[in-house]
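protein under study:
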Amino acid sequence: VLFRSVKTFNDSLDVTGLIITKLDGTAKGGALISIAKKYQIPIHFIGLGETESDLYEFKSEAFSQSILGLKKL
């Protein structure tokens, strides 16, 4: 679903960056990295919860360490 959404928006608009919300699992995290790589679109923010206060600036190193279980976001 994420790939299709990015493709649709990118085909219609010139997408300059991503904000992904409800990023609550490593599967979505892996998909996020694949999307950014495939479409060469930077990730600006990620949402880890339900409210605006759960939106965080995306930091690739911390995110990668979190997916690998080396550090908590």
Q: What stands out?
A: The first strand starts at residue 18 and ends at 20. The mean pLDDT is 80. DSSP finds three helices and three strands in the chain.
